[in-house]
Write a structure and sequence with these properties.
Blueprint: E1 5-9, E2 12-16, H1 23-35, H2 39-45, E3 47-48, E4 51-52, H3 53-56, H4 61-75, E5 79-87, E6 95-103, E7 106-116, E8 122-127
Antiparallel strand pairs: 1-2, 3-4, 5-6, 6-7, 7-8
Length: 142
Amino acid sequence: MTLGALAACGGRRVAVAPAPASLEATVGQFLAAVNANDHDRIAALFGDERGPSTVTWAHQAARRDSVITIMQHLLVSDSSRVGGTEAAPDKNTWRVLRVMLFQGDKRTTVPFTLAPQAAGGWLVARIDLEPLMPAVNTRSRP
C-alpha cells in the first residue's frame, strides 16, 4: 500500500489517504463515516478511478457537499450486512456490492458500485439510493 499522495487543486495541496484494500473495507469505512456524520471521510471514500471526490470534485465543493449530505441522510443505519458481489454492467473493472442496511425494523438492500484505484484499493463510485427513497403518495387528491 502506498503512502498518502498529494494532489494539487486550486493552488492548494490536499492530502489523499490510501483507498481501503477490499470492497468490504471500503463500504464498512464509508458507512462508519455516514453514521458518524463525518463528511470529510465520506468525501475521501467517494470517487472513481480518477481518485476521491476530495480531488476530482475540488472545484465543485458545494455540489459535492450537497451530494454527500443527501447520501448521508439516506444511508444512516443501525447496522449493515454485506451480500454478494458482481461485475458492474457498464465498467468491467468496477464491482457492485449489495449491502443490506437495517434502519429500525426496516431492511433495505442497496447496491454500492466501487471503482479500483491505480495505486490499489477501492472507492465508492455510485450508490443506488432509490431503494431508500421515501414512498410518495401518487394518488390524486379530490
